What we know:
Blueprint: E1 11-14, E2 20-22, E3 32-33, E4 38-43, E5 84-90, H1 103-109, H2 112-124, E6 127-133, E7 138-139, E8 152-153, H3 168-181, E9 189-190, E10 195-196, E11 201-208, E12 215-222, E13 233-237, E14 245-249
Parallel strand pairs: 1-4, 2-3, 4-5, 5-6
Antiparallel strand pairs: 7-8, 9-11, 10-13, 11-12, 13-14
Helix pairs in contact: 2-3
Amino acid sequence: MGVHVITVPIFHNDKGRNGLWVPASSTVSGTVPGPVDLYAFDGYPGGTCHSDNTTGGPSVAPDWGLWGAGGATGGATASPSTPGFAAEFGGGWFDFWGGSGSYPCMSQREGPGYERVFYGTNIANRLAIQNVYMTVGGTSWGWLPAPVVYTSYDYGAALDEARQLRPKIATMKELGLFLQSVAPITKVDRAAAVTPSSSAVKVYHNVNRTRRPTSTSRRTTHRARPPATRSRFRSTRPTARSPPRSRSTGRTPRSW
């Protein structure tokens, strides 16, 4: 009989991106090595609903990879030689004992628009592994998740506690199909910066030099405006074979 070996990489979820327990291969100043193969971190940047179950104002999608501040506390930049790994990335939030029943509101606050902007920003930052917390809501018994949470762990997830589909599941599927179709997206590096005419818009310009010919991609998103809004803008970038050219669009949240 043949011998089959499965190599299981070990990782630790660094709560809050502190550069703790990075692989030995990392030489980033300020990091702390640990007995792991991959560096992983978590973050819940989407915010929460108000106590009256209104969604509130928008949050800003963070750059925890290629386009961020870098260094030990920059997320994936704490371990540049391993894949960017968001072990917990907020896809909702829990409701506590005596809470207002915020799960339906959270499913809207972190709904399709949030997914396109925030998950898409992670892709543009070359985060190659992302675990959405939660994708599937559930029911908890005893003190399974934490003493602050009652039995419902719906979380405003794409699949609710009753196993019903929420509209945000369709956007997750769209992003999954995109990643299956464009696998080299995990091999990109930063390209020349692209400056849009509108300060409400941010453009990520990446390049994949592992392909022949070299390929580039641009991701356009709002900085901190509600996902339902539109912003008109123009952006200019130089190309290798032609003079600088401009491009405009009016639907930033869905642009890829």
